[in-house]
Amino acid sequence: MPTVPEPRALLESLRSGAPLPEFSPDAVAQARSLANDVAGASASTVEALPAPLIEALLEGAVLAGSAPLAEALSQSHVKPVAKAAKKALYRLRSRGIAVAEAPRPPPEPPRAAEPAEVLPALITPLTGEGQRALLLGRFLRGGGIESTQAILSDELGVLELTLVDITRGSYRRRIKETRDEGLAVEISQEEGAALLAEAAALNLRSRTPFPPDLELALRHQGVQPATSGPTVPPPEPEDVRGVLEGHTLHETPEISQWLPPESELRKVVQKVDEIAASPLALSGPQREEQTLQAVRALTRAFFTPELRQLYGLRLWRMADYFERSGRGPIARVARAEARRLFHGPEEPFSRFAERLFEKLLQLAGPQTGALPPPGAPRPPAPPAEPPGKRSPGGLILP
């Protein structure tokens, strides 16, 4: 196989017309036509030639002190061609020939920032005592999550709190299992931290001691005890309709378990006993009606302005819970009752409040012989729950 001459010898052969059998006649003819005028050679034409002929023509450009051909070929996508052209440019610079700076490649478009991983929180519905469970998480540098579980009371603040480091998979599994069981709804991390701060403020106002690690949890979540208490928006014109439907809130699994304090049950039992022992000759329906009216009077006496606000706020929070769990119609009723309980007016009186006490009458009935209100379904008594119960996902429940 014949040896290819060096670039300068090959350039001289092109210019002298010496035979070059190692290349195709067409390539040789094209290169000969360019060899005597490399300054005017087209880069695209040269780039189509065999590599040795390209190097020979670049040699001619260096000898002629002409930079345009080398400058153009230095941008070639064919790596050997670009490399030879850059070598020629270096030699031209060394000879003091002005060479244009190679255009810089356009900057890469900025990569879109990857969305930050969202760490959800969980909140359970309120119990009849105004308690609910909160689950919060915080990313740790080592890749795990600091899990905060708390029992919140809307009267006393944070009752229990635990901090534990777990894996991200364990945290997300706990979220999914508890949510899928219908025991809690997802809220944002910011909303969860705000609830913790709100509850901590109640600890201060009610003089309830902080549980261990509460101050640490507040600091890690970047919040402090709230300086203002929660409130409920003012009533709207359509709320009257919702108030008249307020008894339907007790048909939900969550509020069906709500009852007034035990002291109110004793008052109901006493009132039922008084009516049963009355010397008045009353028929069964008359006794039922008198009992119902007496219990409704107890209801109005119980719902002082302070307790109206307390239960109004509870229903406002339950409305949010219903909305997040896909129950818009019952959320509307809860909001209507919440606004009117919190702010007034008192008439028409809250059907939610009346039904709350009617359930007491039904519980008192088997003990005293009293009958339930006409047409009202008899709900089962709330089952006793062991202390420290947990969701399937491990969330401590109130």
Describe the structure.
- It is a single chain.
- With 398 residues, the protein is α+β, with helices and mostly antiparallel strands.
- The chain folds into three domains: 7-94; 121-221, no CATH class; 239-368, no CATH class.
- Helix content is 49%, strand content 9%.
- It is built from 15 helices and five strands.
- Strands 4-3-2-1-5 form a five-stranded antiparallel beta sheet, sandwiched between helices.
- Strand 3 (145-153) and strand 4 (157-166) form a beta hairpin.
- The protein is rod-shaped.
Based on the model shown, name its key terms.
15 helices; 9% strand; 5-stranded antiparallel beta sheet; 398 residues; alpha+beta; 3 domains
Give a topology summary.
Elements: H1 7-16, H2 25-35, H3 43-47, H4 51-64, H5 68-73, H6 79-94, E1 121-123, E2 131-139, E3 145-153, E4 157-166, H7 168-180, E5 185-187, H8 189-206, H9 214-221, H10 239-244, H11 262-276, H12 284-302, H13 305-324, H14 328-343, H15 351-368
Antiparallel strand pairs: 1-2, 1-5, 2-3, 3-4
Biased composition (Pro residues): 371-386
Region (Disordered): 364-398
Protein name: Conserved uncharacterized protein
Short description:
Residues 364-398 are annotated as: Disordered. Helices cover 49% and strands 9% of the residues. It has 398 residues and is of the alpha+beta class.
Radius of gyration based on Cα positions:
43 Å
| Spatial strand arrangement across the major sheet | 4-3-2-1-5
* SS content category: alpha+beta
- What ranges have pLDDT less than 50 throughout 5 or more consecutive residues? 366-387
User: What about the largest sheet?
Assistant: 5 strands, antiparallel
The fraction of residues assigned to DSSP E strands is 5-15%
Number of domains: 3
Helix content: 40-55%
In total, the number of strands is: 5
Order of SSEs, N→C?
HHHHHHEEEEHEHHHHHHHH
Shape: rod-shaped
User: How much is the average pLDDT?
Assistant: 86
Helix segment tally: 15
